Amino acid sequence: MADILFHIFAFMVIGSSFAVVYNHNAVNSALAFLVGLIGVSGLFVLLDSFLLAVLLILVYVGAVVALFLFIIMLLDMQGGERKPFSKATAAAALVGSALLAVCVMTLIRSFGGLNAAEAGSVVPVGANLKHYADLLFTSYLLPVQVVGFLLLIAMLGVIVLSKKFEGLEDVK
Amino acid sequence: MMEFYFELPLWLRLTVQGLAVIAVLFPLAGACSMAERKVSAWIQGRPGPSRAIVPWLAWIPGISLLQKLGVFHFTADGGKMFLKEDVAPGSVNKFYYYLAPLIAVVPALCTVTFVPFGAYWDAATETMKPLVLANVDVSMLAVFAVASLGVYSLILAGWASNSKYPFLGGVRASAQLISYELSMTLSVLPVFLWVNAPGGEGSLSLIHVVNTQAQPGLWGGMWYVFLMPLSAFIFLVALFAETNRQPFDMPESEADLVGGFHTEYGELKWGLFFVAEYAHMFVGSAIFMILFCGGWHPFPWLPLDTLLGWLGGIAPIFLNPVVSGVIAVGIFLAKLIFSIFVFMWVRWTLPRFRYDQVMKLGWQKLLPLSIGNLIFYAVAIAIIERS
């Protein structure tokens, strides 16, 4: 049963990821992204990480993608105006392929590295609220702080940008 | 009968259980539309719908009472939804146009999976066992997560309709729902700070919250609505906003948006939006009653276990698992119906906010208030638990 579910969710994730990239309509892409996130959260459930699964749905599906859609609808974005390749595309391709290479290397290294008995003894940290919170406040305290700071900067940036526009209202 | 049921495979039993809950919730959500008309009529001093009746039933004596209550009007209304022609405007995006009502109903009914709705007396262990479809430890988060998917139906309906008023409704809906989700989530945190004793495993289970409101003693038996009135108030206001009920029904305010996000929808598709709204109200009220009003316990300082113990002393039938379960679910449903009545009461009493007022209330009043409330209770609970 778990195997079948794993394949269903895995295909959901891969298929929708392709749909995100290849769709011309931004709304379709955002919704394909949403389906992919639901698939990932299903995979988390299969790994017994209920907390992570629920948090993924709550934060990403419930709020982040909704904001994406909100922006897409508000700006009424229609693709096709831009040039197909630019310098930014090349940089993005470089970063993307580097990330992919890291992923593939990790995958190849992990083959045969962890047997079933060892895998069974790993504590599912994402399953339990206490374990999860414990790690957030000990091992991963610095990353959490850094990410929080980044978000704060982004928020301040948005406020500064929108304030500027308000001042220029009569100029427009 | 019992043996036969327990011999069924697990997936079939779970399906039957899920369908049974939906079979109660779906008609109740539909019946609310009738209750809404009767309550509004009562508040405004009108008789309300009281005339529709099936001709050959009119001969039955005493049926005029049902007629006065508008029961036949409700069934006629429901039948009308199914029989109307399925019209779709030519300019819409067909796929998302038909998808939106489905997305409205599915999350609304799925949230019920995580909501405990009663308990039964288990004679073997002499305790109350909760009745819930999926007893997960993170049920509070799960309810919020699944309920937050409902926003997509409004966004998609507004966008797919490809016309101005639904579009404005969809944009308003997404802004409003995201704004009030914050205050709502922050307002329930004090409850979970209070129910999770230090050193414990830490649980977000709704069943645990109900159980902690049924302990002996002055503090143990107190419902959290008395202990944390501000949390309860913020949660209730945010709940009104999340369910798009007046005074927060920005997404469909008739006065300036025709019908809001469902302007282009008719017949059964519109009916699905309607049912989803009431299903959200039911689940939201259930969460409110569980968090702040003792769940299925009849009165503060009087848990259901004690009541059943007294009743069991009179007649042992009350300690039967089925009978005790029915009593618990009955008490819970009675609380829910009262809460739905409050929803209607507010709707027909308060005028609608303006859109900027909704945003100002959400971000400048409710959010700081809920953060302050959280800090106050965090400090207070820390002091109480130290001493």
Question: Judging from the principal axes of the Cα atoms, what is the shape of chain B?
Answer: globular
Number of domains of chain A: 3
**Topology order of chain B in helix (H) and strand (E) letters:** HHHHHEEHHHHHHHHHHH
Oligomer: heterodimer
How would you characterize the largest beta sheet of chain A?
A: none
Poorly predicted segments of chain B? none
Tally of separate helices of chain A: 7
Measured as a percent range, the helix fraction of chain B is: 55-70%
Radius of gyration of chain A: 20 Å
Distance between the termini of chain A: 61 Å
Percentage beta strand of chain B: under 5%
Instruction: Tell me what portion of residues of chain A adopts beta-strand conformation.
Output: under 5%
Low-confidence stretches of chain A: none
* Distance N to C terminus of chain B: 55 Å
Radius of gyration of chain B: 22 Å
How many β-strand runs of chain A?
0
Integer count of domains of chain B: 2
Q: Summarize the biggest pleated sheet of chain B.
A: 2 strands, antiparallel
Describe, in plain words, how this protein is organized in 3D.
The complex is a heterodimer of chains A (172) and B (387). With 172 residues, chain A is mostly helical. Chain A contains seven helices and no strands. Chain A folds into three domains: 81 residues, Four Helix Bundle (Hemerythrin (Met), subunit A), CATH 1.20.120.1200; 46 residues; 33 residues. Chain A is globular. Chain B is 65% helix and 3% strand. Chain B has a two-stranded antiparallel sheet. Chains A and B meet through helix 3 and helix 6 of A and helix 6, helix 7 and helix 8 of B.
Brief digest:
With 172 residues, chain A is mainly alpha-helical. In chain A, 78% of the residues lie in helices and 0% in strands.
Describe the secondary structure blueprint for this structure:
The complex is a heterodimer of chains A (172) and B (387).
Chain A: H1 2-22, H2 26-46, H3 50-75, H4 87-110, H5 116-121, H6 129-137, H7 141-167
Helix pairs in contact in A: 1-2, 2-3
Chain B: H1 2-7, H2 10-43, H3 64-69, H4 71-83, H5 94-110, E1 118-122, E2 127-131, H6 139-147, H7 151-160, H8 164-195, H9 206-212, H10 224-227, H11 229-242, H12 254-257, H13 267-292, H14 304-314, H15 321-347, H16 355-386
Antiparallel strand pairs in B: 1-2
Helix pairs in contact in B: 2-4, 2-13, 2-15, 5-7, 5-13, 7-8, 8-11, 8-16, 11-13, 11-16, 13-15
